[in-house]
Write a structure and sequence with these properties.
7 strands; 7 helices; disordered N terminus; alpha/beta; 217 residues
Length: 217
């Protein structure tokens, strides 16, 4: 169950079908598991956590003549709020993590990417360390299920996948208030580009495709 269904997020979730160029306010449906694609789920943890799901054609990750950006067949993104509800003492972070884990569970073959968090200022507010708490909970759930998350710096994602480049590539969603979802998109795109260049990273991300005994191993 996603957070918007509980009435805790009035943004809903924006689903983007790149193959048809349509945008709609909806929830991500549970797609059937397809082991012939390379899925990546990227998270931008925080007081509002952005997420991005992209499915790429695995051949584009190994064929030097193919461009990864032209071989992303599915793209969904959105964000969930983790604010504490003072009136009901509802732990928004727990709900957000539960929602995000529900998405990750639907894609057992997906590579998981999270924006890393480095303290660069003196801030003692509870909200400031929200990314750390969410990442720790996600790491624990991933560990329990034999999975892990790749880390990427926010600077690398924003420098490589700037707004200008997202627009050039056709990945910029102008829907208002989804800055964190766009940041998650940056991490997903950066990760796919890195996997194109790094054999070991590619094998670790999708062993069912590129590992020993995989379809492209």
């Amino acid at each position: 169950m996603l957070l918007a269904e509980r009435g805790g997020n009035d943004l809903g979730i924006i689903s983007i079908d790149l193959s048809k160029g349509r945008k709609r306010r909806t929830f991500v449906d549970k797609d059937p598991l397809n082991v012939t694609v390379a899925p990546v789920i990227a998270l931008d943890p925080g007081q509002t956590t952005g997420w991005s799901l992209m499915l790429a054609n695995p051949e584009a990750l190994i064929d030097p003549e193919s461009k990864v950006l032209e071989n992303i067949t599915t793209h969904h993104h959105g964000q969930v709020s983790s604010l504490l509800d003072e009136s009901t003492h509802t732990d928004g972070e727990s709900i957000a993590v539960d929602d995000l884990w529900s998405l990750i569970e639907q894609w057992p073959e997906a590579a998981i990417v999270m924006e890393d968090f480095v303290i660069r200022m003196n801030d003692r507010s509870r909200q400031f360390l929200s990314p750390v708490r969410i990442m720790a909970r996600m790491d624990y759930l991933l560990w329990k299920h034999g999975r892990f998350a790749f880390r990427q710096s926010p600077a690398d994602a924003k420098n490589t996948c700037s707004d200008v480049r997202l627009k050039e590539w056709g990945f910029y969603d102008s829907y208002g208030g989804l800055n964190h979802a766009r940041d998650a998109d940056r991490h997903a795109l950066l990760f796919l580009r890195k996997c194109k260049q790094n054999v070991t990273m590619r094998q670790n991300a999708w062993p069912h495709l590129f590992g020993q005994g995989g379809m492209y191993g």
